[in-house]
Design goal:
Elements lengths: L4 H4 L2 H4 L13 E2 L11 H13 L11 H10 L7 E5 L2 H12 L5 E6 L3 H9 L3 E6 L8 H11 L3 E5 L11 H10 L3 E5 L20 E6 L1 H5 L5 E5 L1 H8 L9 H11 L2 H23 L4 E3 L6 E6 L5 H10 L2 E2 L1 E2 L10 E5 L3 H16 L1
The chain binds 4'-deoxy-4'-aminopyridoxal-5'-phosphate.
Amino acid sequence: MPSSPDQIIRPEILALSAYHVPPASGMVKLDAMENPYSLPLELREEIAQLAASAPINRYPDASAASLKAALREALAIPDRMDIMLGNGSDEIIQIIALAFARPGAMLMSVEPAFVMFRMIATFTGMGYAGVPLKADFSLDMDAMLAAIARHQPVVIFIAYPNNPTGNLFDAEAVSRIIEAAPGVVVVDEAYHAFADASFMGKLAQYPNLLLMRTLSKLGLAGLRLGLLVGRSEWLIQLEKLRLPYNIGIVTQLIAEKVLQHCDILLQQAESIKIERAVMSERLTAMDGVKVFPTDANFILFRVTQLNEAGEVFQGLKNRGVLIKNLDGSHPLLKNCLRVTVGTPGENAQFLVALQALLKT
Ligand code: PMP
């Protein structure tokens, strides 16, 4: 008689809920921090040519050397640092956790943070410690340093800017965390394109610092390409856990091509930053809405008039606009919602729908 899943699968996996991706067909999709703009037609035609002639009968270049060279150039990665690629930065978080998951080892982050930090700790059998941020979503350094001393985490993930709050933490405070950490600190710069700050320049200074980036928010979410930058002594070990062909040939070719035109993506990011300012201002002007400062391509806001963010979320959905309801995910996010900055037209639809809801 075969055993049932609940007799065999680890209890902590049985207790998990899968990462939920809501259906979005036909909706104004402002829930997943995607770049709303497409690439110019000429570039898309070049991409079509590349895809048509790609040797998809062969395994891809396992080291993706050519793509890495393009990334090094486009992202100004220091010569002395190595690069490891992941199928999205999600996969890199998983590789790091797998490498550090000795029995009893702790992964630490702040709360609220990107949910995959906690989930991947569970996937890999690590302990997890999430240190609450202050009510204004800044780092609580006393709590952070005390938790580091208590838990001795082997790895700390800090998203800079943070998701879902959108803010950049104080750089000095992050440096103090790196200095106090007994293990590595991964600064996750997924939203770097929308912020004017980076720890790339600190890699040389801190031997326990690793830096993560992704092309997802820049406009290539569908390709799935994330990268880790750091010293070779760390990356040589982590590379052992990377599955040999994790980056497909089509991703390699297209990402390299688009990176040669990185200025287009950066211009799109600039437009998003301009729209972010417009949207923040309009949201701030609405009665019953509190807007939090953001350095990312999304805005966190709290509704103070209606009883529940759930009502706003559902009301927007009924009007064809999909955002993210964060109420219930953490006490600090009571009645909070997160909206990705889209095109001016999409943002206007969202704002009109929200305004209509708040008046009812
Ligand atoms: N880090 C942060 C902070 C994120 O918000 C996200 C995406 N939501 C990721 C990493 C993962 O991005 P991807 O796997 O698309 O590279």
